[in-house]
Amino acid sequence: MTITRIRIVALFRPAVLSLVAILVVSQAPLWAAKPLSASQARLKVTGARHNRPDAYKGIGDFIGWPGGIDRLPNGDLLVTHSSGYWHSSFAMPRQIEPELAKRWRAEGWPLDFAAPTGGRTMGCRSTDGGRTWSKPFTILDHRLDDGAHAVMTLPGGRTVCLVGVQASWYGYTHAPTAFAKDIDGLNTKQFVIHSDDNGKTWSKPRGLKSPGDFYERGHGGRPVLLSDGSILWATYYQVRGRKFLSGAIRRSTDNGLTWPVISRIVRKDNAIDEPAIAELKDGRLVLVTRPDGAIFHSADKGRTWKDSGSRVISGGGKFKAPQLAVLADGTLVAFATWRNLRAWISRDGGMTWTKDLPLDIGSYGYPGSYILEKDGSILFPYCASGRAPNAVYLLRFRVNAARDGVELLPVVR
């Protein structure tokens, strides 16, 4: 939509003064006239009360945890997300450590919810640039609880979806006997699936060997396509008996089929949790991590990492589910849940950051992997809440010309 402006111009001619109305048609879109609020800018894709999935045995009201969004080879948009009954949707039968189960039930967790396979990985498709969205369809329904962590379309046309599968037990140091053979005895394991037909059909899930002996997870951070055609993806894992989580960098050189671990990142005094990575203009890689927004750099394509000493946030609170994007001029953008959904900007590769910039302070956040458009805008999905009933929103924003603020844009341009 454009704005039509009328400017009255006085034209002076000898002995004649005439007022001529000159019609000026601005090509600036309507959103340029007045900043949008989050409630005006965001678009709801699916949720417990909006565009709900068709009923299946075990469906609940936790429609959320978006893995990400990407553009398919045919131009369609695909949003991947989970569908379950709660924050984690354990399949049946399930076994939660008694004291933990008591606390969770007191918090409202429906641990007796009848869900034979727990949550499942689902997707929504748009064929009109994001204006309308299909009803959620199943991408993967593992016999255990599963959900998307990231989605990415590769240059050759293959779309890769990275999926986490969670066992039906929690609160124990080892898998209870009845669950010892599930996903290698791990609590959570990573899998990869791919589609070569614009997301219509998907391969069987391929399990990835965990770098830890308890679990490996990989919420959200968008994989990075390097100039040599390889893909890097950051995950995090737990070793039994160790207080802090550690980070792992996986690398695929075969179009997303296999993902061996090429490095591990261990901090002595804190965790590497929900890490996200990006490639800077100078060829270095940058990584940011929960819980404190610590910044790491790698000068050898992710094989070794050094803590920069920089932190995105200052003050209390956990920095959760970060994403990193690098703009055409090298500006680094982080966005994450810190109390709610916020963004930060760095002009020096992550060494210094702006203050936190609100994106949607009325939503929980937990952003999934994003699309960085040619115009520099960033389109991404996120959660309305951290518990049921939940919904998945889309939001588009861009960094201002001064590189010290952000502005929200319509999802559909």
What Rg is obtained from the alpha carbons, in whole angstroms? 23 Å
| Global shape | globular
C-alpha termini separation: 9 Å
Would you tell me the structural class of the helices and strands?
mainly beta
- Overall helicity: under 10%
Proportion of β residues?
Answer: over 45%
What is the residue-averaged pLDDT?
Answer: 92
Sequence stretches where pLDDT stays below 50 over 5 or more residues: 1-31
Main sheet overview: 5 strands, antiparallel
What is the tally of beta strands? 30
- The tally of helices reads 2
Walk me through what this model shows.
- By secondary structure, this protein is mostly beta strands.
- The protein contains two helices and 30 strands.
- Strands 3, 27, 28, 29 and 30 form a five-stranded antiparallel sheet that branches. Strands 14, 15, 16, 17 and 18 form a five-stranded antiparallel sheet that branches. Strands 4-5-7-8 form a four-stranded antiparallel sheet, with no helix packed on it.
Précis, in short:
This protein is mainly β and 413 residues long. Helix content is 3%, strand content 45%. Mean pLDDT is 92; it is low at 1-31.
List the helices and strands and how they pair.
Blueprint: E1 2-13, E2 16-29, H1 38-41, E3 43-47, E4 62-71, E5 77-84, E6 95-96, H2 98-106, E7 120-126, E8 137-140, E9 145-153, E10 159-166, E11 169-170, E12 188-195, E13 206-207, E14 215-217, E15 224-225, E16 231-238, E17 246-252, E18 261-265, E19 273-279, E20 285-290, E21 294-298, E22 306-311, E23 320-326, E24 332-338, E25 340-346, E26 357-360, E27 371-372, E28 378-383, E29 391-399, E30 406-409
Parallel strand pairs: 6-11
Antiparallel strand pairs: 1-2, 3-29, 4-5, 5-7, 7-8, 9-10, 10-12, 12-13, 14-16, 15-16, 16-17, 17-18, 19-20, 20-21, 21-22, 23-24, 24-25, 25-26, 27-28, 28-29, 29-30
